[in-house]
Amino acid sequence: MNASNSWQTIRDEVKRRVHEREWTPGASIPNESDLAREFGCARTTVNRALRALADDGLLERRRKAGTRVALHPVPKATFDIPIIRHEIEALGQRAGYGLLSARTGTPDVGVLSSMNCEPRDMLHLVSLHLADDRPFMMEDRWIDTTIVPAAANVDFSKISANEWLVLNASYTEGHIEFSAEAIGDERALHFGCSPHGAGFTITRTTRVDGKGITHVVQAFVPGYSMSTRL
Amino acid sequence: MNASNSWQTIRDEVKRRVHEREWTPGASIPNESDLAREFGCARTTVNRALRALADDGLLERRRKAGTRVALHPVPKATFDIPIIRHEIEALGQRAGYGLLSARTGTPDVGVLSSMNCEPRDMLHLVSLHLADDRPFMMEDRWIDTTIVPAAANVDFSKISANEWLVLNASYTEGHIEFSAEAIGDERALHFGCSPHGAGFTITRTTRVDGKGITHVVQAFVPGYSMSTRL
DNA sequence: AAGTGGTCTAGACCACGTC
DNA sequence: ACGTGGTCTAGACCACTTT
User: Fold this and answer.
1) Rounded to an integer, what distance in angstroms lies between the CA atom of residue A179 and that of residue A182?
2) Does the pTM of the predicted model rise above 0.70?
3) Residue A196, SS3?
4) Which residues pair with A203 in a beta bridge?
């Protein structure tokens, strides 16, 4: 209904006061009870509004100390990390996929430490993802078959590791990193571009209860970008 | 207190049931009233827990249709976009800054369209940010002085545009894009690196009530990355 | 010790979307 | 039409943090 006493209305009004400097960065704002009285609503409703703004980084709240306008509102950008195939299809293109190599081996220390485990044999997959038959992304992935035994018997030339894992091995924690890497000779070969190009790269590690499931480096073709609204 | 009836407890229990396939992707889960009865708590509490999981993308909720386990849980990664100086200082380094050029001119159509405005003169700033005296990031920024007139009289060799704008021109909407760009000859000169390197690049536009305030391209030195937990 | 936000309750009404 | 989630209320107790 978005009436004058909805939490969204209160949120917007508080936002307005901050933007228009009625409440300045670093200053305390009235407590929830006072605001509830002012807006003529329950304290719960004010709480909901202020909590939303605190989640956005606009306010800082501490018990007893009260609520303050953040000194430096840190913009938070939220990105959806979709399954590659869905992302390609959302662009109106046809998703293709090819397994380049599937072997067993021991990852280097960097991968091991991010997976939080001792050196041991793991499944190593290298694959190429296509959009409308053109190269789109090259993926280098390690899977710990000690943690996900079923992965050892999967034919990853038919289903991508990404999709299989999403359906068969949910994680509890993970880490993701965005970076820019030179394409390099090997990827240039598959991408059909210069090795000096810059590729947007996503490095991701997922774990269950602290045990690493998979570590993957996804290098996108030059020109790829991720965007979101602020 | 995190007792057995806290919303966090319910959230974790629901999460567990999804992860352990008691509730499978695509399936409906009991409605809020039933869950409240099961957990012995108020419906409000269940609502809070389920809403949090829906925000995370694990559940999909629709009035009347009920709550379902998401078919493809889309991981959402949230990044903090800090002020450069704070980011450098958080790394334990000393932040430096130099204005390379400040002129007036008309931006190209790409910039204009993302700022949602007609061709007109704007302030154009190019600057170099340093960490412990080493190059860190190069910034190319347009500021529409029609929208933020005060910016015309600021000495941007003393305060970075980023910091000045944060303090003096809050925005209502914005767009941010992460990409990988080749360093190129000009930046290579300032960075003291090869022009063939790959630079992590952030392109950001902010607006107030639809009117573009500023458009900025920040190219980071090779090796820079952004990361977050999932 | 005391003030402030964090949360829970029990009940209510409503908006939305499916049937 | 009606079931489900979305939200609001008034009150209560608690946790945390500062004084």
Assistant:
1) 10
2) yes
3) coil
4) A177, A217
